[in-house]
């Protein structure tokens, strides 16, 4: 797949599939942080040293295929325009940190966009693997296989006592971040999520927004991930996260059922008001878009709305982001111009779906 296809398609191919508990868990991700042995870590390395690593990985893995992950496309950050970098962030193919970093950064992206390998971000290598729905164990198994494949040609920085060595001390050990992206509208509407977040934090997990650290939970979408990487095995970490996610799924389903039983007309009114805003607005900001998309998705899941697929909503979540809007328009847009184009694209997509 070419860079242009990554830019033009709002929804990644893997996102079109449904996984277990996909009404609540949108995706499962495993991220592995690795560094090359005998090479200065990116935070202290010279530009020439980072360039050498970048060129080596490009030479070894550009257009390579591993099992079902076909045609790894190498993308150099220095070749991208700011809007193109933002699009890759909005699709979760690179981190905001890599987008803002020096010109010695890059990424390998599989054809399905299910795998991305960031190069010279905070660490030399950061492997990301996504699965639709709640599939942490499967994602971990596949991430291990990709990690082993890379390690056939790369010697990792590893200590027998500490584990994998990383730039940030919080990643030392397994070097793993396991996370799930969850849509929790009922817990947000009933304000139960505010009481649950501190309890989750006490269990060694962290709750963040849609783009990870420092981001806001737009559209009632929360990212739940582990904080501890040292002294625990990868399976233990994933097991702890799975237990918490299973509890959140249970509580979200209870909250949805309670809203339907006790506040049905109010919930239905909220959902169809949001649907009306999306269908008829001529100008709409990103925050309001996220809130309305969340309401409509809830409406689909509880059976109030039957003529729209969740795939369209997944697409609109990305398509209506600032970077993608400007990529679509092929020019830089002012905030007001983005709000006008956002409303137009939403109306167009909903009309296509209904038509």
Automatic annotation (TrEMBL):
Keywords: Allosteric enzyme, ATP-binding, Kinase, Nucleotide-binding, Transferase. Appears to be allosterically activated by the binding of pArg-containing polypeptides to the pArg-binding pocket localized in the C-terminal domain of McsB. It holds the Pfam family ATP-gua_Ptrans. It catalyses: L-arginyl-[protein] + ATP = N(omega)-phospho-L-arginyl-[protein] + ADP + H(+). ATP binds at residues 27-31, 92, 126, 177-181, 208-213. Gene3D superfamilies: Glutamine synthetase/guanido kinase, catalytic domain. Residues 24-255 form the Phosphagen kinase C-terminal domain. Catalyzes the specific phosphorylation of arginine residues in a large number of proteins. Is part of the bacterial stress response system. Protein arginine phosphorylation has a physiologically important role and is involved in the regulation of many critical cellular processes, such as protein homeostasis, motility, competence, and stringent and stress responses, by regulating gene expression and protein activity. The keyword Ion transport does not apply. Coiled coil: none annotated. It comes from the Bacteria. Its EC number is 2.7.14.1. GO terms for molecular function: protein arginine kinase activity. It comes from Aquibacillus albus. A motif (RDXXRA motif of the pArg binding pocket involved in allosteric regulation) lies at residues 338-343. The gene is mcsB. This is Protein-arginine kinase. CDD domains: bacterial_phosphagen_kinase (cd07930). Belongs to the ATP:guanido phosphotransferase family.
């Amino acid at each position: 797949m070419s860079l242009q296809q990554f830019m033009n398609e709002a929804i990644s191919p893997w996102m079109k599939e449904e996984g277990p508990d996909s009404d609540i868990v949108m995706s499962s991700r495993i991220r592995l942080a690795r560094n090359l042995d005998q090479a200065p870590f990116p935070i202290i390395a010279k530009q020439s040293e980072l360039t050498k690593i970048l060129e080596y990985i490009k030479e070894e893995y550009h257009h390579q295929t591993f099992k079902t992950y076909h045609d790894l496309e190498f993308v150099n950050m220095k070749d991208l325009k700011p809007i193109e970098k933002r699009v890759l962030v909005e699709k979760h193919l690179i981190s905001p940190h890599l987008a803002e970093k020096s010109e010695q950064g890059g990424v390998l992206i599989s054809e399905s966009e299910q795998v991305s390998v960031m190069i010279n971000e905070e660490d030399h290598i950061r492997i990301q693997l996504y699965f639709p729905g709640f599939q942490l164990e499967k994602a971990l198994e596949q991430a291990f296989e990709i990690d082993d494949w890379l390690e056939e040609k790369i010697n990792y920085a590893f200590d027998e006592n500490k584990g994998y060595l990383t730039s940030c001390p919080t990643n030392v050990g397994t070097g793993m971040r396991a996370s799930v992206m969850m849509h929790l509208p009922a817990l947000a509407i009933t304000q139960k999520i505010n009481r649950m977040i501190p309890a989750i934090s006490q269990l060694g997990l962290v709750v963040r927004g849609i783009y990870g650290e420092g981001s806001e939970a737009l559209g009632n979408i929360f990212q739940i991930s582990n904080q501890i990487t040292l002294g625990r095995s990868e399976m233990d970490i994933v097991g702890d996260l799975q237990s918490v996610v299973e509890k959140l799924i249970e509580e979200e389903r209870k909250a949805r059922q309670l809203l339907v039983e006790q506040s049905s007309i109010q919930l239905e009114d909220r959902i169809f008001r949001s649907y009306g805003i999306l269908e008829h607005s001529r100008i709409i900001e990103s925050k309001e878009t996220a809130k309305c998309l969340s309401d409509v998705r809830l409406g689909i899941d509880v059976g109030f709305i039957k003529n729209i697929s969740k795939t369209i909503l997944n697409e609109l979540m990305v398509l209506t982001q600032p970077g993608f809007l400007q990529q679509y328009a092929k020019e830089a847009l002012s905030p007001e111009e983005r709000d006008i184009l956002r409303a137009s694209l939403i109306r167009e997509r909903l009309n296509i779906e209904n038509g």
